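Hi V.,

You were right to ask for the full record rather than a summary. Here it is.
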Amino acid sequence: MLINEFQQFFDCCVGNWATERTYHYLTQQEVERSRTEFAIEPLSESLKLKVLSDNSYPVPPKVHELPGYHLGFQTVSEKGEKVSQELNMLFVTEQNDEGVLQGKYLRDRAYEEEKPIVANFRFDTAKQELLMTTNYTRVVAVDSITLINPELRIRKILTYRRPTEGEALKEVVLVGFGVEQKQPPNSK
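Predicted structure:
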């Protein structure tokens, strides 16, 4: 049953969204606002297989049933800086117990580094929260998406300086908050 709730979460996420975010750069004591418009579409089975291949990840059974999505976004900061990116992502569940799903979150292109990457995810059905943790070369990003209702999500991003192997996350370098609202069809 948890897999169905996970799929419902993503069914709500498909479509066009707009978000207003605030980023707190703690190492520079700077705050920045931005607006992002993004679109989420289901991924075809062939693109799911490509994401697996790009990450040298073994093909799990029933790959066609895995939640996979194409994400395209355009961000404009209050300073006028623009960033656009497109990527494909796939979620492979490894554990399913007590209202929580856990597994791997694969992308064919990472946000922080221009390469395929495998991260970890945890989905809490009671909170409707998807938590994604990605270990980059210099930082570890912990990204939370909480579905409030089918038209509203709350985003929280914590980025830590990557600790040495075996040490706990400690030094926060960036904190981001966002309110994401689904846009009516054809509103782009």
